[in-house]
Amino acid sequence: MKELVKVENLKKSFGKISALRGATLTLEERQQYVVRGASGSGKSTLLHLLAGLDRPSGGKIWVAGKDLAKYSDKELGRYRNQFIGLVFQFHFLLPSMDCLSNVLLPARIGNVSVDKVKQKVLDLAAQLGVVHCLGKFPYELSGGEQQRINIIRAISLEPKLILCDEPTGSLDSDNTDKVVDLLKDLASHTESTLVVVTHDDKVARQFPNKFFIQDGVVVN
Amino acid sequence: MIRTFFKIIFSSKASSKFSIGVIIGLSFSISVILATFGIMDGFETSMKESLRSAQGNLYLYSEQAPFQINERLKKALKKEEILSFSGIYQTQGFILSGQDSKGVLMKGISPKEFGTVTNLNVSIGAQDVALGSELAKHLKVKRGDFVTLAFGNKNKAMVGIPELKRLKIGDIVSHGIYEKDLRTIYINRKFMQDSFAVENKVNIVLIKAKNNSDNKLMALRQDLINDLGLEFNIKIYWQEFSSLIEAVRIERFMIGLILQMVVVIAIFNVLAFIIFLNEERTKELFLIKALGLSQAQLVKSWLFLIFIIWTFSCALSFFFVRFFNYALQNISFLRLPPEVYHLTNLEIILDYKDYLVVFTLAMVWLLIFSGILLYRLKKRPILEGLRREFA
Known about the structure:
The complex is a heterodimer. Chain A has eight helices and ten strands. In chain A, helix 5 packs antiparallel against helix 6 and helix 6 packs parallel to helix 7. The relative contact order of chain A is 0.20. Chain B has a six-stranded mixed beta barrel with strand order 2-3-7-4-6-5. Classes of the chains: A alpha/beta, B alpha+beta. At the A-B interface, helix 2 and helix 4 of A face helix 1, helix 10, helix 11 and helix 14 of B.
């Protein structure tokens, strides 16, 4: 398997608090991972650093052989837009836009052909059974529907790495299973690497590759 | 992307209302400066136009005595740059009507010549007098009424006894300058020359030049001085009020500087608006950054918003200035006292340079202050919006 992202001795402090104390791991192409750990162990911080949303206090993140810390503002923007697909726990759909506009947001930000992406989005929406939601506003949808729209937005530009931060945290058990299956299927279909951060054992059991974070260090 | 940014920014009524307030505030501040410049420019322009209508472009006089427009003088005045000239015999006297009297400048003119040089049509017959409009108001007289003029007697044996002449008011004229409208009367030149027994002599010659730009007039004045020597004093039409005009120019600059404070205060509203949007839309701004918007793109979007605010403010200020101008001329308590400001009517006159200077300065201030703010905002971590989501 080809290495996609390599994390070396990654550290992140917020003032006197150390969220990551030297995490090291490797993510390979087309693999699916789960990151587990207790609340406050640093798993979300790791995800944010991988997503380029924050800068590490120490250590390196190598993306396709290049140090993420050396990315310019513009390169980092493009990295977040086209390399990464982010799925948030609380969906984070813009309430002032309908769902179609929400899912086309990455294309608009990245100056990618909206027409091309739109067709893909429609196919995905049909596959996930949320075509009827595209014309609606987020507040008109159920939690499960919102999360599916959120997932469509994350993979609309076929990112190499899909990062999910507690994607099932706000869902009931039925929807949790559906969303996990969906993420795994879509990641396989788009040949993306999938990283799911969760503290849910049931979700974690569905992934063959597991990382466990304890006190800011990857322990297995 | 800009469209999406605007959709996010203006998704609540509060931000839309705030933006309207910000635009009105900034446009009002800009228009205050424009109106001030316009009043100052209007003062200078109106003053010059009014003076031109009273005494042509240049005037020459001799301090020694009345003089004849002889061949030498005629030759000097036959320049290509001079369109026409008109001799005037003028002196001071008193005008009386009923119980009222006023000291006046009596100008003996040839109405046709005078009209050609000054564009001021004074319609008087041989035994008529024309009064300035403010003087007519003061004396409560109208065209067709009779007034009495009292002036120095030519008869040396009767020094101290004024000569009195009763004349019909043939015309009431307005120069636009309060002092001139209050203190000037026009009489037929021949009548004046006969009354003062100066034959066909004059004591002032008004000159109409081809080009009335200040530089050309100064060059022409110098030419005439070279031709005529020191026998005559030659002045440009505005020189009588030159110190006042210069004072207005300096005042305009100083007030313009001071009023920049008003714009800066209005710009703080713009900054408050940006801070407000940043706080209110933190989560949304985090999201678009998380989805790939670079900090530079975000700064560009803010700058575009600032540019839009500036554009609308400038456009609105144009209408505010029109409104101020209307109010200045039509609302009585806003009218300037003419006895203080010399002009009977003052309007806001602005040229493109005034707009350019004021609009550009407003933009410069906006860029300086918002640049500092945006630099600080740029340093805020992207994750702040996410942390607030979970807070």
